[in-house]
Amino acid sequence: MLEVRDLECVRGDHRLFTGLNFELQGGELLRLRGSNGSGKTSLLRTLCGLLEPAAGEVLWQGESILAQRDEFNAELLYLGHHNGIKSELTGFENLRISNTLRGESPSEEQIYDALGQIGLAGREDLPTQVLSQGQKRRVALARLLLSDAALWVLDEPFTALDVGAVAQLAKLIEAHLQKGRMVVYTTHQEVVMQAGACREVNLDLAGQEA
Amino acid sequence: MTQPSLFAAWRAMVARDLTLAMRRRADVLTTLFFFIIVVSLFPLGVSPEMAVLREIAPGVIWVAALLASMLSLGRLFADDYQDGTLEQMLLLPQPLSVLVLGKVLAHWLVSGVPLVLLSPLLGMQLGLNGNAIVLLMLTLLLGTPVLSLIGAVGAALTLGLRGGGVLVSLLVLPLYIPVLIFGTGAVDAAISGMEFDGHLSLLGAFLVLAALSTPVATAAALRISAE
Question: How far does A70 lie from chain B, in Å, by closest CA?
Fold first, then answer.
């Protein structure tokens, strides 16, 4: 269970949000809403432990994530603005390395299979620098196919994707939720997802008042 | 995380950075040519007299190695920071300092080891004799990893700052001084026929101390810089 208590986020001199509370159970989907600059990315980065909150805390299974980084990271998969892939390495290499670093060891077939499924068949062994923006995004998304992490944190996962890939990603998220996992994401696109429990947090309303 | 997966992750980190270096060979070669050119300027600028050159050789080669090592620091974390792989590294279920040690090792293998291997050639160019050259290589072998380890802290602290390259030299160069003193001191002692074991032991001690302490500091600095 992911729990957020009285969270406050400050960037520079500007207070983005304060007194934010919510919790997320297995199988639930959380969409963050908010205008540009309302602190969606900052909130996601705080949820991952990349950013320390100005006040309040993020709890995972009842314990602060900052006190159990390694355990929490093993359950977390974060996809940020940047794809987190090396342009000199091929899609296959990127995926293999990022999985080995996480302490997982999928077989070569599984990796090729994941890249094929995400629409990169025949391009697995090209350096990612020759791929298009959308294809690079797909390499990053292929990590989701190989991941069994309990919590996915996705920052604008639909950007640069074509219609087919958006639908595929939506299905991927739905399947993940059906396994009783959690997904937190932001998007400006309206993507319809069939989820058991879909929550929303609107940061424009999350008390910027003092 | 179990021990085997930590070791596998560490190995993957080293292997990844070595592969990247192989695919961007120009970067590695630039540092190496910088080292050669700086050393080669001294006979032109100071004096082509062998006696003079032999006198200044250890210092010249060591200072050039220092600068070359610093020049290569920019690549250590900056690329990873820009493409988001650093963020992913911070979110791995492995101790960050161990992975940092892997990155620094890879960095030393591509930027430090070539300096060590090339130093005999430059030593000969400046008229050093056999013994002094062996010792020069030995001190560089012990000293360059310390430079990479200390430099990593500076590189992590200045990550994402404008003008970080200049700032890192101001931060890191003063910390390089002990290594420089004992590195050149050992070679000078060997040339004048004195004992040099003490210098080497101290360099070894620096290496152990740096290997134990700097990865933790670098990891902490990376977390701050990535915020």
Answer: 4
User: In whole angstroms, what is the distance from residue A116 CA to residue A136 CA?
Assistant: 14
Minimum mean pLDDT among A182-186, A189-193, B139-143, B220-224: which range?
A189-193
CATH of A1-75+149-210, one of 3.40.50.150, 3.30.70.640, 3.40.630.30, 3.40.50.300: 3.40.50.300
Q: Which of B185, B170, B198 is nearest to B132 (CA)?
A: B185
Summarize the confidence of residues A171-192 as an average pLDDT. 90
SS3 string, A90-148, reads: EHHHHHHHHHHHCCCCCCHHHHHHHHHHHHHCCCCCCEHHHCCHHHHHHHHHHHHHCCC
CB atoms within 10 A of CB B73: 25
- Number of domains making up chain B: 1
Q: With an 8 Å Cβ cutoff, is A49 touching chain B?
A: yes
Pairing of strands A2-11, A55-60: antiparallel
Report the distance separating Cα B166 and Cα B190, nearest Å.
35
Confidence of residue B61 (pLDDT cuts 50, 70, 90): very high
Rounded to 5 degrees, what angle do the CA atoms A139, A144, A147 make?
130
Identify which of B170, B174, B169, B107 has the alpha carbon closest to the alpha carbon of residue B144.
B107
Yes or no, beta carbons of B93 and A100 under 8 Å apart: no
User: Would you kindly state where each structural domain of chain A is located, as residue ranges?
Assistant: 1-75+149-210, 85-148
Range(s) of the domain holding residue B185: 3-225
A85 reaches B (C-beta below 8 A): yes
Is the separation of the CB atoms in B30 and A127 below 8 Å? no
> Considering CB atoms only, which of B1, B12, B16 is closest to A70?
B1
The label of the residue with tokens 């990349």 reads A50
Q: How many CB atoms sit inside 10 A of residue B225's CB?
A: 18
What pTM does this model have?
Answer: 0.91
CB of A204 closer than 8 Å to CB of A34? yes
> Which DSSP symbol is given to A53?
-
